[in-house]
Amino acid sequence: MSMVLRCKMEVSHTIRVARNFDTHHIYEIEKSAFGSSAWSRENLANYLSNKTTISYIVENSKNILGYNMVTFIESDFEIIKLAVTPLSQNKGIGNSLLVHFLDQIPKNSSVFLDVSRSNTSGISLYKKNGFREISIRYSYYQDGSDALVLCYKN
Predict the structure, then answer these.
(1) How far apart are CA 56 and CA 26, in angstroms?
(2) What are the DSSP calls for 51-73, one per residue?
(3) Would you say 48 and 22 are in contact if contact means Cβ atoms under 8 Å apart?
(4) Strands across the sheet with 147-153, in order?
(5) H or E stretch including 27?
(6) Which of 5-9, 11-15, 56-60, 71-75 has the lowest mean pLDDT?
(7) How far is it, in rounded angstroms, from Cα 74 to Cα 66?
(8) What angle do CA 10, 86, 50 make, to 5 degrees?
(9) How far apart are CA 143 and CA 103, in angstroms?
(10) CA distances from 90 to 73, 116, 132, 133, 135 (A)
(11) Residue 82's closest CA among 73, 95, 64, 91?
(12) Alpha-helix residue ranges (DSSP H) falling in 35-146
């Protein structure tokens, strides 16, 4: 399933399901977005081929600009990763990925995610799209920072 989007830059973008051949590009975005806590290329490839995971990428005619990786069991979903290349941030691309995913889930579904308490732009993105804070995981990340647990009910 794909969809053409118009971003603030007036450039056409497509969102599609990620495939194993996208692993290299996703890994490059992963490293730029998450630094030392980035997943390995092998871990990303395993998630892309897992039957309980769906991943979307957004691309223009030349590059993959971001990705969203989600696991699911029945009607419960968890956003594992959502990242956009540094040059493509603050242009609505992450929002497009998130909205595209939320539009795909069945009615009466729940979506959960963890986001670093210091990731104010991520928290703002999720709350703008109907997520609410349900819990805090203290010292959750490798650097000792807390994670907010957010939930979206469809």
Answers:
(1) 10
(2) TTEEEEEEE-SS-EEEEEEEEEE
(3) yes
(4) 3-6, 12-17, 53-59, 64-73, 76-84, 110-116, 147-153, 132-137
(5) helix 23-34
(6) 5-9
(7) 26
(8) 95
(9) 34
(10) 31, 18, 22, 23, 27
(11) 95
(12) 41-49, 93-104, 120-128
In the numeric block, the tokens 């497509």 are attached to 14
With 0-12 CB in 10 A as exposed, 13-18 as middle and 19+ as buried, what is 57?
buried
Q: How far apart are CA 97 and CA 116, in angstroms?
A: 19
Bridge partners (DSSP) of residue 77 are: 72, 111
Structure tokens at 111: 């979506």
**What is the model's pLDDT at position 26?**
96
- For residue 31, give the amino acid letter: K
What amino acid is encoded at 79 in this protein? I
Band of pLDDT at residue 141, cut at 50, 70 and 90: confident
